[in-house]
Amino acid sequence: METSVTLERALALASTLTIPRHTETTPLSLLSGRILASPLSSKVDDPAFDNSAMDGWAVRAQDCTSDGTTLEIVGTSRAGGEQLPQVSTGQASRIMTGAPIPPGADAIVMVEDSAEEGNHVKILGPARPGFIRKQGENLQKDQEILRAGTLIGPAEISLVATMGHHEVETLCKPTVAVISTGDELVQPGTNLSPGQIYESNSYGLTSLIEKMGATAKRYDVVHDNIEGLRTTLNDAAESCDAILTSGGVSMGEWDLVRRLMEDEGQPLFWKVRIRPGGPPLCGSWKNKPLFGLPGNPVSSHVVFISIVAPWLAECMGADHELGPRLADRIRVKLSEDIKGAPKKLCMRRIRIEIGEDGFVATTHTHQGSGNIHSMVAHNGLTLLPPDIDAKAGEIIDALWLR
Ligand code: AMP
Ligand code: MG
Questions:
Q1: What distance in angstroms lies between residue 147's CA and the mean position of ligand 2's atoms?
Q2: Residue 346: pLDDT above 80?
Q3: How far apart are CA 305 and CA 307, in angstroms?
Q4: Peptide bond before 47: cis, by omega within 30 degrees of 0?
Q5: Taking all residues of the chain, what is their mean pLDDT, rounded to a whole number?
Q6: Pocket of ligand 1 (CB under 6 A)
Q7: Matching CATH topology for 24-46+145-171 and 327-401?
Q8: Which of 53, 61, 78, 190 has a 20 to 30 Å separation from 211 between CA atoms?
Q9: CATH of 51-133 among 3.40.50.10860, 2.170.190.11, 3.40.50.10770, 3.40.50.1100
Q10: pLDDT in tens, 3-14
Q11: Cα of 157 to ligand 1 centre, how many Å?
C-alpha cells in the first residue's frame, strides 16, 4: 500500500480498479441523464426537405429585383401540407415557417415586407435565398453525430429524436454502495443525545453518485465494530459494483475501515496530499473497488469530486469532454489573500463570480472540513499547489463546481 500520494498518483492507482461495463437499450423518454454506449448517426437529413425559415412568400428572386413588384398569388405552402403550387414567373406562393419550398421558387420574402391586394401581393422588401433552409444543412443521413460516452442532456435528447431514434444503446448504470460508519451518527428527524450528530454524508454521496449517472445503494449506518463492518462490506461486495465508505479511515483506534482493509482487504493507497480530504483510502474488498472517504463532510465531498468522480466516469466509459463531470478547471482572480497548505494541494472553497475581465473568487464561510455549509456558500475549489500562498489579485487554477 502506498501512503501520502499526490492526487495524480491517487488517480493513476485508482484507474487500475475497474467495474464491468454492460449496455442496455433505453427508450427516448428515459434517456435523460444516461450515457451513450456507441456512436449515434442520423437516420435522416435535417432538414428533411428545403423549407422556409420565415412566414411570407415563396418567389423567384429574379422577379423581385425592384421594389413594388406585384406578383400573382398561386397558392399556399404550409408546414405538414402536401399539395404544393408551381411558382412560375410573376407568381408567388404564400408560405409558412417550416413549410416546403414549392417548385419554381428560389427565395422568400418576409410577410412584413409585403402588402396583399386581392389575389396579388406587392413586394416591398428583399427576396432572400438565405431564408430557405436547405435539405441536410444541419445533419446528413448516416453522418455520425454523437460520440460514444456522451451524457444525454436536454439538447442531446432533442437531437436524438431529430435523428429519428426512438431508443438507443446506453451504458448500464453501475451500483455504488454508500456506507457511513460511526457510533456518533443518528438519523435526521430523531433527537440528538449528548455526543451524537446527524448522519449527512450518505445523503450527499448518494446525490453525487446519481449526478455522475450511477445508482447508489445506501446502507444503514454501521457502528464502529469490526464484525458489523465486515458483514456490511461483504454484502456490498456481493450486490454492488463498487463501495464507498465514509469515516473510519484516520489514525484513530476506532478507524476501523482502515484497519479492516489493511488486515483483510487489498488496499492500494492511503492518504492523499490534498487539503481538505487528507486520509482517503482506496483498494478493493472481495474484488470490488472500495473508496474509504474521510468522515468530515467537506472532505468526503472533495474526495468524491476530485478522485471518485473522475474514476467513475472512466469506468463507466464516459467521454472526457462530453460525459458527466462535477467540476470544470478554470482560472480565477483572487480578491483576497489565500493561504496554501504545507506539502498538500490546497482546495479552499471559493465563490466564483463573473467579473469584468474573467472569473473572480471570494471566500465567505469558515473553511473547516467539518463545515458542509462552506460547500453550499461557495461554488468552487482552489487548486493551490503545495506550499504556495496566493495574494489578492493573483490568477490561479480552480475547479468550478457544477
Ligand atoms: P472519522 O473520519 O470517522 O474520524 O470522522 C471525522 C468527522 O466526521 C467526525 O467529526 C465525525 O463525527 C464526522 N462524520 C463521520 N461520518 C459522518 C457522516 N456520515 N455524516 C456526518 N458527519 C460524519
Ligand atoms: Mg468515525
A1: 43
A2: yes
A3: 6
A4: yes
A5: 97
A6: 180, 182, 184-185, 197, 199-202, 246-250, 294-297, 370
A7: no
A8: 190
A9: 2.170.190.11
A10: 999 999 999 999
A11: 40
Cell digits of residue 303: 474526495
Distance separating alpha carbons of residues 44 and 185, to the nearest angstrom = 56
Instruction: Quick: pLDDT tens for 296-322.
Output: 999 999 999 999 999 999 999 999 999
Cell numbers for 365: 464561510
C-alpha cell of residue 40: 449515434
Indicate which residue's Cα is closest to atom 7 of ligand 1: 296
Name the DSSP class of 220. Answer: P
**Interior/surface letters 231-241, b for 16+ CB within 10 angstroms, e for the rest:** ebbeebbeebb
Write the residue with the smallest CA distance to atom 11 of ligand 1: 295
Domain spanning 24-46+145-171, CATH class: alpha beta
The arithmetic mean of pLDDT across residues 15-22, rounded, is 97
The CATH fold of domain 2-22+173-315: Molybdenum Cofactor Biosythetic Enzyme; Chain A (3.40.980)
pLDDT digit string (tens) for 42-72? 999 999 999 999 999 999 999 999 889 999 9
pTM of the predicted protein model: 0.93
DSSP string of 157-206, one letter each residue: HHHHHHTT-SEEEEEPPPEEEEEEB-TTEE-BTBPPPTT-EE--HHHHHH
